[in-house]
Amino acid sequence: MAAPTAAPAAAAPPRRPGLMKRLLREPVAALAFLVVALLVGAALLAPWLAPTDPFDNNLGAAMAVPGTPGLPLGADSQGRDMITRLLFGLRITLMMGLAAVLLGGLGGAVVGFAAAFYSRVDGLLMRLMDVLLSFPAILFGLAIAAILGPGIPAVVLALSVATVPLMARIVRGAALVVMRQDYIEAARATGMSDARLILRHLAPNCLSPVFVFATLRFGQVILLGSALSFLGLGAQPPVAELGAMASEGRNFLFFAPHIAVIPCGLIFVVVLAFNLLGDALRDALDPRLRV
Amino acid sequence: MLRHVLQRLLTTIPVMLGVLLIGFLLMQVVPNDPAIVRAGPTATAELVQEIRRELGLDQPLYVQFGIYLWRLLQGDLGVSIINNVAVTQELAGTIGPTLELMFASLFWSIPIGIAMGTIAAYWRGSLLDRAVTAFSVAGGSVPVFFLGLMLIWYVGFQWQLLPFTGRGGPLWTLEGWQSIALPALTLGGTFIAPVARMTRTAVLEVLGAEHVRTARAKGLSEHAVVLHHALRNALIPVVTLIGLQIGFLLGGAVVTETVFSWPGVGRLAVGAILSSDFPMAQGTIIVLSLGFIIVNLVVDVLYAALDPRMRGG
């Protein structure tokens, strides 16, 4: 995996003005930003935006096609309004992704800083991370779902575990560069404790690669999480989650393809938007990383 | 070279043991007592105790792990709770189809990905390059099951061109080819984007290298420069990266198998987990993990064979 292990913003003056401006100069990036903002907004406001309750079924409207009066995107197999289900599904899917990136990112950051800071454990920790890295996330999903039983917690845990080694590598790479700076030496000379040194001086200067990675990882995690839900290992019906909705819709593919296709399309849009935004952030924060 | 292989083999052993240990512990935490399951619902407490002794379940954990490893070496992974078939027997029939599907997917997607990446790198910045780049970003964002469902809907259902459930037969029969076409298109389809992206980067790097300039200065045709001097050298990192992406492919295979009811290890694993068939779930997960370790090992050794600089270390 070609993860950016490049220099953090430490070399550049802190808080260069106009990150947003630089980010939004590129039309694709601006569009991706807009789409992400809209998606997040829609997910946050789902309970207010949704025309009905996500579990309200109306069997009379079952499999109604998009364009049916009152149901612009149609209804699912139990006559639940697709728009409502999509809004709530988006909410759950994004929350799953956020939880996994936060949990895995935090775990990875701890490992990465420990490896960079304490050279005695560096080899062992990174070797362990390499082992974790050699297994695909779906396999973690299978194993954890077998232990915990299928459900959202299993998916979040599996994706977090799969994120830890990636984040650990990024953080370690960034931290090693920052640690060569004089001010770290100076802070150490003042007798500052390790924990304080890491939190106050090391971590803030490693933020930009972490931020870029987290954005790109978010897209991947959504993709993997929805695949696990599609397999039935994640969100369980009747919960509205995009992968689970696609899975339910699969059974009605030949009668009402929209039930599966629309959630799939939305997953694609979410992942694409985050991937594009991540790429743009990388270019804006650190042009040296551009390939 | 031999030393390198041996070294890699040695470092793989602890990882394999770790996977087996996790697989073993998996069975300890699941809410399921194999003795009760084997004894059946009408068994007396004495009979359960008897079976527990027989299975070694009254021994300390590390002894049980030893027994478990010993059984594993003899190909005994336990018995399915659902249909009482030996896990190894069920697994044996699914490994072939999974390998078949992965092979068929790689067979068509790697050449296309490499061609796309090379074209993009050669005409860097052109419209073609942008199209390839856009394609690989978009391709990396498509859920596998989306691609699969679209192929089923159009090719399988609307146009009635190809079958879309199950495996028709071995690859050398017409039915075998027809039935693997859509699953392989699906799984391979998700693989083109990463291959194209990696190839583009690798070829770009090589095109700027001195030996390529020399080749051009010698007056070689562009064709010879790109194919023999640039692409050939770029392929070394590409082959390794492809090897490392096999993991990603196996993850996709689990989903693809489920979408197309392809009788592989992935589908068996998902089915076992969903029906709480713990011994079967454990067996499939162990086989998938070991499969992975072996693939990584093979890729590493191949890489060393391709590029002598990678040996040692």
Please provide a brief summary of the model.
The complex is a heterodimer of chains A (291) and B (313). Chain A is mainly α and 291 residues long. In chain A, 68% of the residues lie in helices and 0% in strands.
Describe this entry's structure for a reader:
The complex is a heterodimer of chains A (291) and B (313). Chain A is built from 12 helices and no strands. Chain A is mainly α. Chain A has a single domain (25-41, 83-285), classed as MetI-like (MetI-like fold, Orthogonal Bundle), CATH 1.10.3720. In chain A, helix 4 (82-117) crosses helix 10 (207-230). The longest helix of chain A is centred in the middle third of the chain and has 36 residues, at 82-117. The radius of gyration of chain A is 22 Å and the shape is elongated. Mean pLDDT of chain A is 87; it is low at 1-12. With 313 residues, chain B is mostly helical. Helix content of chain B is 77%, strand content 0%. Chain B is built from 12 helices and no strands. The longest helix of chain B is centred in the last third of the chain and has 38 residues, at 222-259. The N and C termini of chain B lie close together (12 Å). The mean pLDDT of chain B is 86.
Strands, helices and their partners?
The complex is a heterodimer of chains A (291) and B (313).
Chain A: H1 19-25, H2 27-44, H3 46-49, H4 82-117, H5 119-133, H6 137-148, H7 152-179, H8 182-189, H9 194-202, H10 207-230, H11 242-250, H12 258-285
Chain B: H1 2-29, H2 34-39, H3 45-55, H4 61-73, H5 87-122, H6 127-139, H7 144-158, H8 174-207, H9 210-217, H10 222-259, H11 265-274, H12 278-306
Helix pairs in contact in B: 1-12, 5-6, 5-8, 5-10, 6-8, 7-8, 7-10, 8-10, 9-10, 10-11, 10-12, 11-12
